[in-house]
Amino acid sequence: MAANLEAEASAREENNAALIAALGKPNSDEVESSWELDVLNDAEHGRWTASLGPEAIAELSYRFVGGRVVLLTTWVDPAYRKNRVATELISRVLDEIRESGRTVTIICPVVGVFIDRNPEYADLIDKVHPGAGAYPERAPEGVAHNQELTAVERDLA
Questions:
Q1: Per mean pLDDT, which of 1-5, 16-20, 76-80, 143-147 is the most reliable?
Q2: Among 19-23, 52-56, 82-86, 116-120, where is mean pLDDT lowest?
Q3: Mean pLDDT across the stretch 100-123?
Q4: Shortest CA distance to 72 belongs to which of 84, 82, 64?
Q5: What whole-number distance in Å separates Cα of residue 46 and Cα of residue 72?
Q6: Which listed residue, 38, 52, 78, 119, has the most CB atoms within 10 A of its CB?
Q7: If you write DSSP's letter for every residue of the chain in order, what string do you get?
């Protein structure tokens, strides 16, 4: 059982690192992907999905807690990464949440990095319950930190 949990955690970390690397440069003005995506809220299953024709190629799972939306995980089919799919999905989800008047609690580190790079969405973060992924940590230059963080930073460069 422990091996399964470790494998799942490792796969989730690899997915997050790949998506963060694919988000593109900080404060990019262009958020649209290379394709015409449909982004739909699948409220029954608690996820927004991005589809290319009939094929779902990405999703952002969530739960409602009180008056806020808890953003849990982002997934993009590996064949569609580095085409701004995660960027477009997250921006469209955050735009929809803004229109609803809700705030967000961020568990997903990919969403946290997206907002860090696009501060026009920072006002959506719930002040009382920002979530573990809300404010990505950056180690100051020259300060030693773990290799896992170094691998993510290397992917972002």
A1: 76-80
A2: 19-23
A3: 96
A4: 64
A5: 10
A6: 52
A7: -HHHHHHHHHHHHHHHHHHHHHT-STT-S----SS--EEEEETTTTEEEEEETTEEEEEEEEEEETTEEEEEEEEE-GGGTTTTHHHHHHHHHHHHHHHHT-EEEE--HHHHHHHHH-GGGGGGB-SS---TTSS---PPTT----HHHHHHHHHH-
